[in-house]
Amino acid sequence: MEQHGIAAGGLNLGKYFLAKNLKKDIPASIVVFLVALPLCLGIALASGAPLFAGILTGIIGGIVVGSLSGSQLSVAGPAAGLTVIVLNAITTLGNYETFLLSMVIAGVFQIILGLVKAGTIANYFPSAVIEGMLAAIGIILILKQFPHAVGYDADFVGDEEFNQIDKNNTFSGIFSALAKINYGAVIISVVSIGLMIYWPKFKKVAGIPAALMVVLAGIGLSLLFNNTSFALRDKQFVHIPIVNSASEFFGLFKMADFGQIANKQVWITAFTIAIVASLETLLSLEAVDKIDPIKRVSPTNRELLAQGTGNIVSGLLGGLPMTAVIVRSSANVNAGARTKTSAVTHGILLLISLLFIPSLINLIPLSCLAAILLMTGYKLARISLFKHIWHKGLDQFIPFVVTIVAVVFTDLLIGVGIGMLVGVFYILRTNLRNPYFYHIEKNGDKKVIRIKLAEEVSFLNKAAIQVTLTSIPKESTVIIDGSNSRYIDQDVLEIINNYKHNAYTKGIIVQLQDIKPAYDVPKLKELRIKAN
């Protein structure tokens, strides 16, 4: 009887948490859906693919990848970073169906990467670089969405690269937008930002997502502006494909051309997509874990398996390559999502919008959706983040700033690569400077120098220890203390033993304390695993 009561209590508690999470996940899914919708269409357009392919990829990313992923907050979909690769690949391969075959193979490659545990590479991304990437994406969102917010839509929604396909760059695009302002779009954007800021403060209506109110207000204002000087042009609205029948819907799907399986270029394209998509996914996953309020750690290898499966399905049905996408994922986090229900539901909403309400969706102005992305960008690049990193010290702040500048002026992968180089430099610099604790004592007239080695002394510390030992004054007593050391590299042990052997020529007495003849590396790995 008592056990039954406990079981019932556990069941009720589970229902409580499920209901509590759904209250956050469902409104968040609406926000992600509204953010994803123009991004899916814009990336498809820029990739030279059918618009349907972009929506289809978002649906698969939400439902398939969202269900299989171990991440609770990451959202997958078509990635802006792959647009150039996709556009060039379609041209090189000759047709879209052959490109789809390369996507299927890329998905298989990603599954193999997941099975061989390649996802663990994410553990080596410096924290300052990931923080810099998040801030850079926020700045890019603000800079790139500003033209859409004022009614200038020459560049595709979702572009993240500095050089745009409309021949502008990020900054010249803003000046072009200022010269061609549509005041109707500006009013919609301002009202939308106001709603995003103030709507959640009204507790009685806080359950209704602010993003939904933004869309309703945008549609209402755009209809009000019809036949006035504030009227929006046709290209300033969402353009989702309208499907009039089941046969027309199924006619939108495309099949991969498996007859090109022996084409060498197909395999080269597949490998390129697999590597780039996997790197973007791992970077996004690491970034999402950084901003997760519950601080959960997502399984990276499982994510590669999920993404590989998603890309295989997308390739078989006629979609685009997908990754975990930081813009959608950060919008998901900022909207208050708690579990993967939000990502899956956003995929279902994309499907519903395509099948049942495309005409209604096409009434949504891009300027109100730009306002949602502007607010997302502001939260990612908030001033408090810069202050927080500054207080951590220059070894964190410099890689952080370099990453931001590099990402803004190039693209995500190149920018992060540059940030990684700077970050690794500072990590090596810190390791070189901190292999030991150096303490000088007095024993009468004689100096006693105690060198206490760190927990781990690698070959990177070899040069610093060599310089320290050779600079010790004559007629000293040196105690080299390894009591705290779990591991000392063999090269360092050799330097220490050689120094002890030759130090008598300078009148230096060397005492080794708790230093073993050799250290077992596998045992070190075991200790690290236990520590984690």
From TrEMBL:
It is a multi-pass membrane protein. Coiled coil: none annotated. Residues 22-398 form the SLC26A/SulP transporter domain. Its main location: membrane. The keyword Membrane applies. The chain crosses the membrane at residues 26-45, 51-68, 123-143, 181-199, 206-225, 266-285, 305-327, 348-377, 397-428. This is SulP family inorganic anion transporter. It comes from Mucilaginibacter boryungensis.
